[in-house]
Amino acid sequence: MVSPVSQGGRPRQPSLAQLRAFVAVAEHLHFREAAAEIGMSQPALSGAVSALEEALGVQLVERTTRKVLLSPAGERLAARARTVLEAVGDLMEEAEAARAPFTGVLRLGVIPTVAPYLLPAVLRLVHETYPDLDLQVHEEQTASLLDGLAHGRLDLLLLAVPLGVPQVTELPLFDEDFVLVAPKEHWLGGRGDIPRQALQELDLLLLDEGHCLRDQALDICREAGRDENTPVTTSAAGLSTLVQLVAGGLGVTLLPRTALRVETGRNDHLTTGYFADPAPSRTIALAMRTGAARQGEFEEFAEALRGALRGLPVRIAKG
């Protein structure tokens, strides 16, 4: 291995391109896939990794004809390399924000039980108020969104809180009640004073594992005294399918108020009922990395979004 010293006697500094190449290889353990991810040719990527090894004076990657492995030093330095690249990304983000707020790319992550009902208002706000903002929307479940936020793949999240995650700042937008949705002739249909205890014995339909709305509904049921051994039918990956199952008489479900009109408005086989105060509810918020370079911009965006959502059947949070 060549010593990491240039001909002038000074230690060589690795380039960002070399670090990006190494991190891509560390994540994929495959040169072709790593090259495709960062838009380099495979020979160029291999050369960048070799140059980084020469600059650092350590072997980072073990190459065989069939697979790629990280050396012990590679395992340790891959984490360092990621930190360096994230820091450079933060530097560029801060410089962009300093040049002009509400310009450039904003990568917004949204959970599936929010996206169809709030995105029209979000997109309208961006179009009318922030026309120079390049909004990119990613619909994913909460765990994936938080991972994307932590690793810099996403800038801002729109989801249910509280999250209880360190280094994530929540900007509450509103609270909304849950509504019982049942088959048309159900005995709870049309009521406005349903006690939570009614959930103890109902045939309840929920979303699949991984949806935060499923977890919220189960929490509500536990608070209502529902036996944890009482079966819950899980049959739907989305709210639209869930509502169709209810219309078919397979059980009842809980919908957030913002989803009610979209999901039940065109179905004559459904009825709704409202819970007695205090009704079970959820809080929807924007979430960002604590200390994000664009924190002031995101706080302003949250306040503007609160105003844009005032026509919905929700309780707007105070800024």
TrEMBL record:
<keyword id="KW-0805">Transcription regulation</keyword>
<dbReference type="InterPro" id="IPR005119">
    <property type="entry name" value="LysR_subst-bd"/>
</dbReference>
<dbReference type="Pfam" id="PF03466">
    <property type="entry name" value="LysR_substrate"/>
</dbReference>
<keyword id="KW-0010">Activator</keyword>
<dbReference type="InterPro" id="IPR000847">
    <property type="entry name" value="LysR_HTH_N"/>
</dbReference>
<dbReference type="GO" id="GO:0003677">
    <property type="term" value="F:DNA binding"/>
</dbReference>
<protein>
    <recommendedName>
        <fullName>Probable hydrogen peroxide-inducible genes activator</fullName>
    </recommendedName>
</protein>
<dbReference type="GO" id="GO:0032993">
    <property type="term" value="C:protein-DNA complex"/>
</dbReference>
<keyword id="KW-0238">DNA-binding</keyword>
<feature type="domain" description="HTH lysR-type">
    <location>
        <begin position="14"/>
        <end position="71"/>
    </location>
</feature>
<dbReference type="InterPro" id="IPR036388">
    <property type="entry name" value="WH-like_DNA-bd_sf"/>
</dbReference>
<keyword id="KW-0804">Transcription</keyword>
<dbReference type="GO" id="GO:0003700">
    <property type="term" value="F:DNA-binding transcription factor activity"/>
</dbReference>
<dbReference type="Pfam" id="PF00126">
    <property type="entry name" value="HTH_1"/>
</dbReference>
<comment type="similarity">
    <text>Belongs to the LysR transcriptional regulatory family.</text>
</comment>
<dbReference type="InterPro" id="IPR036390">
    <property type="entry name" value="WH_DNA-bd_sf"/>
</dbReference>
